[in-house]
Design goal:
heterodimer; A: alpha/beta; 4 helices; 5 strands; about 25% strand; B: mainly beta; four-stranded mixed sheet; 1 helix
């Protein structure tokens, strides 16, 4: 009887071990053509503006801005910024909103600045205020009040330019990303920085 | 005989590539050999709540070397503060000293690790 119980236990354990060995990654379909990669891996597929370039630009601009531009005295309110957009002056299709979003994300996470919604984000805010105040559906005490938007003291805008030099054997591409922070009231430049990237390709 | 010599030379090269780099102690994380790139020293300062670190690199070879570097930031308890940083490519000319610098973007960062990876020699220019 004891022998039978032991044999049964060993059998069940063995099946469990075999089954656990068969269960591998939790993926729905076994496709050897698709693998996940590292988002921070350096991309040198081409001389076009790449993931790595976007990440380098965003990192440098954020660090520079936090180091020098937004050092508010202790006890004072955080500086308020709005992003007015980055002009793509190259002939490449580059979504510069991606770059500014990465910068804004890092700035918000730092807690050092207050980012105000930009012009393109205003309509969403206005629509929500109308919904809360004019629809008659919301308790006035809990509804967000109209006319309470805080103005941004600083406006951030920038541009991305590119220069190409090439001959029969080499293509040399230079990008420059410039970001400028204007004092809204004075229209003076409160901070400015640039990130240069150079890539070469042998043909 | 020739094959044995080639095998021996290859083994020696592999050992040389795998040699651990000097400097920075536990704050240096090198992925593989550094091909004559020496991480000389790092300096850190806290300015306005944010930790800024500068690291000096020296290319001891005559040829240029491409390196990739980044910092990782930790709080006072050794917990990672932010997502992995971007790998920054940097060309270090032969016999050149280069200084790389970065700031943490979170005030909790109080320690760092310097990560570096180097590509094999590109030959003297």
């Amino acid at each position: 009887m004891l022998m039978n119980s032991c044999v049964r236990l060993i059998g069940v354990s063995g099946v469990a071990v075999v089954l656990s060995a068969c269960v591998s990654m939790p993926k729905t379909a076994d496709s050897s053509a698709v693998t996940y990669g590292d988002t921070k891996q350096v991309s040198n597929v081409s001389t076009e503006f790449s993931v790595t370039d976007l990440q380098m630009v965003a990192e440098k601009m954020t660090q520079s801005m936090l180091e020098t531009a937004v050092e508010a005295p202790r006890g004072s309110q955080r500086p308020t910024l709005t992003f007015a957009g980055v002009k793509n002056k190259t002939s490449e299709y580059i979504d510069t909103v991606n770059v500014t979003n990465s910068i804004r994300t890092a700035l918000v996470k730092s807690g050092k600045v207050e980012i105000m919604g930009g012009i393109s984000e205003m309509q969403g805010g206005v629509d929500e205020l109308k919904r809360q105040n004019d629809s008659g559906l919301y308790d006035k005490k809990t509804a967000a009040q109209v006319g309470k938007y805080a103005a941004a003291k600083y406006r951030v805008e920038g541009e991305l330019t590119r220069m190409i030099a090439q001959n029969k054997s080499v293509k040399d591409v230079y990008y420059k990303f410039t970001l400028i922070m204007f004092n809204t009231e004075r229209n003076s430049i409160a901070w400015m920085d640039e990130k240069e990237i150079r890539k070469s390709e042998k043909k | 005989m020739k094959n044995r010599i080639m095998l021996g030379v290859s083994a020696l090269m592999l050992v040389a590539c795998a040699a651990p780099p000097e400097g920075l102690g536990g704050r240096l994380s090198a992925r593989g050999g550094l091909y004559d790139i020496k991480v000389v020293e790092s300096r850190a300062q806290v300015k306005g709540d944010l930790l800024t670190v500068q690291t000096e690199l020296l290319n001891e070879a005559r040829g240029d070397r491409m390196v990739y570097w980044r910092y990782r930031w930790f709080d006072k308890d050794g917990m990672v503060v932010s997502d992995d940083g971007t790998w920054n490519p940097l060309l270090v000319y032969g016999q050149q000293r280069q200084y790389v610098r970065a700031s943490a973007t979170h005030s909790k960062a109080r320690d760092f690790k310097f990560e570096i990876s180097a590509e094999g020699g590109q030959g003297p220019k």
